[in-house]
Amino acid sequence: DRLRVLFVVQGEGRGHLTQALALDAALARAGHRVVGAVVGCSRFRPLPAYFADAFRGRLTCVETPVLVQDRRSRGVSAWRTALHTALRLPAYLQAVWRVRSAIRRHRPDVVVNFYDLIGNFALALIPDRPAHVVVGHHYIFLHPDFRPPPCRPLAAFGLRLLTRASALRADLRLGLAFGPMRPHGRLRVVGPLLREAPAGGCGETVGGPAPRPWLVYVLNPGQAEDVRSWHRTRPGEPVLGFWDRPLPGPVALRPGLVFHPLDGRGYLDALARCRGLATTAGFEAVAEAAALGRPVLAVPTPGHVEQAWNAADAARAGVARTASEFRLDALMDAAARTPADGAASFAAWVEAARADAVRWIEAAVRARRRGASLPERLPAAEPQRSGAPACLKGVSGAGAGGLAVRGDPSATPR
């Protein structure tokens, strides 16, 4: 049966938006229809135009909790985040009712929630709720095989508590991971959900012709100052950056160091031709570059526990190196040293992810309708074509290096 699907998307950062764009295309290819997308918006982080354009006519914005930056716009401030959340609580309660109204209006067969807590609360208010699927890298944090790096116990407890709360009563927890992991409860694991290129390629070139630059993506604009400080020591290295600052055009912080407003197609084009990526440790940013075979330096945002766990997981899987600050010397060293042996294996895992995610959503809806349990594994399907996804195919470059696949040793990328 063709499914009517409603997305509820957390708007913080670009990772959840990337997942929604990728899954929207995959569902359409399978004959299903995403009837609407409810997205968390905030004055601290405007919704990127590329996402708004993709869901034009289907988009509803609601105010949802966000992580508030510190005074220097480099990291996350816990007390500012808590204070802002408390002050905006009436607006968040209103958002719960708006999401509930959207579910009632669209009458979907399944709600797919990309780690948005407000959406989960709204579903709890609907007695005859539709099937409910949650999607995100965070759900592997609940897997018994996941081993987080050392951190403050209270912060670890809070992250896992938030992750559990976002998935309460979900029929399926779809965890995105750097490699296969065994089924656990209602948790099933697939590869990263990455976007495919438009028919004309990855978009118009951003940043001019060769030489190929180093690429930088920062979550908070203040982190660009760290890049500028490093660039003073290596002024001859071309660096192309992207950030979330709502500016009309690029900003040259130094000769050879230019930051652009986040642009989905422009970013993919820059990623396809860069020598390597230094990025705040968002799951999708790391995965996109690794699927290309690019070396990656993952820098967790200060105070951001999830990114610290992402970086450690990426390093353990062999898809990235980690650092505490944006000094690109480690990235240059990785580009000079790392082979590309594991890149094909990781790209095959990524290539299978979109189709597998759709099949798991279909399985969850079938199980819900029949009152049956979720199957542990998907039935055999036609072999997936190996290689990098869409615009990542046929692009040569420095290797990601040693892309070890974690999880059940008997499991292989589908």
Task: Kindly list the characteristics that best describe this protein.
414 residues; alpha/beta; Rossmann fold; seven-stranded parallel beta sheet; seven-stranded mixed beta sheet; 36% helix
Per DSSP E runs of 2 or more residues, the count of β-strands stands at 14
Level-2 CATH architecture of the largest domain = 3-Layer(aba) Sandwich
- The gyration radius over C-alpha positions equals 20 Å
| Biggest sheet details | 7 strands, parallel
Shape summary: globular
Write down the CATH class of the largest domain. Alpha Beta
CATH topology of the largest domain: Rossmann fold
Instruction: State the helicity in percent bands.
Output: 25-40%
List segments where confidence is low: pLDDT < 50 over at least 5 consecutive residues: 197-208, 383-414
Relative strand content? 15-25%
Helix and strand run = EHEHEHHEHEHEEEHEEEHEHEHEHH
Strand order of the largest sheet: 3-2-1-4-5-6-7
How many domains make up the 3D coordinates? 2
What is the count of helical runs? 12
Quick rundown:
36% of the residues lie in helices and 16% in strands.
Please explain how this structure is put together.
This protein is an alpha/beta fold and 414 residues long. It folds into 2 domains: 4-197 and 351-370, Glycogen Phosphorylase B (Rossmann fold); 214-337, Rossmann fold, CATH 3.40.50.2000. It is 36% helix and 16% strand. It contains 12 helices and 14 strands. The chain has helices at residues 15-29, 49-54, 78-87, 89-106, 117-124, 153-166, 223-231, 264-273, 283-292, 305-317, 329-337, 343-370, and strands at 4-9, 33-41, 59-63, 110-114, 131-136, 172-176, 187-190, 214-217, 239-243, 251-254, 257-261, 277-280, 296-299, 321-322. The strands form 2 sheets. A 7-stranded parallel β-sheet has the order 3-2-1-4-5-6-7, sandwiched between helices. Helix 1 links the parallel strand 1 (4-9) and strand 2.
